[in-house]
Amino acid sequence: MQKEIIISGFGGQGVLFAGQVVAYAAMDSGKQVTWIPSYGPEMRGGTANCTVVIADHEIGSPLVKNPPFVIALNLPSFDKYEPLMQAGGTLIVNQSMVDHQARRNDIHVLMVPCNEIAEEIGDKKLMNMVSVGALLSGLTEVSLKEVEKALEAHLPARHKHLLPKNYEALKRGFEHAQKEWDKVPA
Amino acid sequence: MTKELWKGNEAIAEAAVRAGLEAYFGYPITPQTEVLEYLSRRMPELGRAFVQAESELGAVNMVYGAACTGVRVMSSSSSPGVSLMMEGLSYIAGTEVPAVLVNVMRGGPGLGNIAPAQSDYNQAVHGGGHGDYPRIVLAPASVQEAIDLTVLSFDLAEKYRMICMLILDGAIGQMMEPAEMPEMKPVQRKDFDWATNGTMGKRDRRLLTSIYLNPLDEEQTNLRLFNRWKEVQASEVRYKEYFIEDAEIVIVGFGTAGRVALSAVRAAREQGIKVGLLRPITVSPFPTERLDQLTGQARAFLVTEMNTGQMLNDVQLAVRGRVPVEFYGRPGGVVPFPDEILGEIKRIISAPATVDTDARDAWLTRMTQHA
């Protein structure tokens, strides 16, 4: 088993942390995992992405050309990764920040208004956790419970009071995505 | 100890601390800066020496001085910074003191870029500073290996009174993987019989130098260094093999290029292609003997690197023209994807080279056609 996930968005959307949460959950459940950020002469407001690879064997390449899973938190990420996705893959799109539908019909596209859901919970910064929840609806190798446990185990102590809202964000994202799955043609 | 998610650069820094690093001297440069940043906090916490020098030249000469006292000392940098350190490395080698240097390589030559590359293989393994001197070079391919080899590098440097370099790239430096740290070892300052650590009025003076004005003395020094190197070659070769047992095509790749090749090997195996991977962990000393053995088994070798074919020459020396050695590289800071290497594996089956093919020329032609 090997699954690759790319999480992409603006710097500041919590892209790198979202990937780390998934990586921690995979590690804690005994899987092999790599997390690698895009790095370069980045600037505030620029794009950021990270690649997470989960496997039950020694992982080779930490990078992937045609990912089966992508979270696109903004429009440039949506436009960049939709054409690159593996056929049959699952694309989670932050509906709050895109202005058009997906073009491909050979991938599963789950539209999730991450910003609005996060604001309903009461903290717009939780939008990354909403998207991770949505991812887990398609990524069966990592469970919601495992991600919750990973957050609890690895969130710095000063942020521990935020755990309940993070759990809620994960759950709301997961539930919204499940409804989206019902719309996805088989 | 349990596994934690460690970033490569920080893992190297913490591993060095746990191996008893007493003094670190460095200068910031991407994609290595996290090593320095981490140690700038961690070393003072433990009452150990951390100095951000005025330049790489300053840093390497501080390493030289500390190494003469016999303490565990290291520096880290990235390609352009390592070039600046070469004079100091030569003096350290000539003085026969142990030192550890980490090079998180980037695209070059010149200022180049900060993307992952393996462009300094020749500088690390064959070239570097002036004069005749051997050095140990380790090439980790994962965060765990980076930790283990950092610890090992101090032991090897001391055992052989030699520079031990770690070469990796920004992909491993920036990547996070689950890894286990060794236990924290208390600093044990060894009383080496060569260390200039103060006579305390109780023993004769010692002299450490790299000056041998009489050529016959310098010649003896050169011979001594290379006799010691023979011991290193006999005892310290390390590599890891994957799917090698029945492999008819053997890929040779180190570090990131090696682990990318592993993905290609897995994909090829799923298609029934008998291909394996030899990943050198020590690139100096090089696993020449193992490659010599594999020449009897393999009908072709494919060297994959993130440069224009530097380790290629060492593989060719081991294979000695008995079977074709082919090459695939992505220089300049480009990390290959597994499907590129899979494509090369299939090409070797459909259109194999002969032993007379110039591997780099053939690769250049293919690259130019594709571009």
Architecture (CATH level 2) name of chain A: 3-Layer(aba) Sandwich
Protein chain pair with the most extensive contact, residues per chain: A-B, 23 and 25 residues
User: pLDDT below 50 for ≥5 consecutive residues: which ranges of chain B?
Assistant: none
CATH superfamily of chain A: Pyruvate-ferredoxin oxidoreductase, PFOR, domain III
Number of helices of chain B: 14
Oligomeric state of the chains present here? heterodimer
The Cα radius of gyration of chain A reads: 15 Å
Strand content of chain A: 15-25%
Overall mean pLDDT score of chain B?
97
What name is given to the CATH topology of the largest domain in chain B? Rossmann fold
Approximate shape of chain B = globular
Which stretches of chain A are low in confidence, meaning pLDDT under 50 for 5 or more residues running?
none
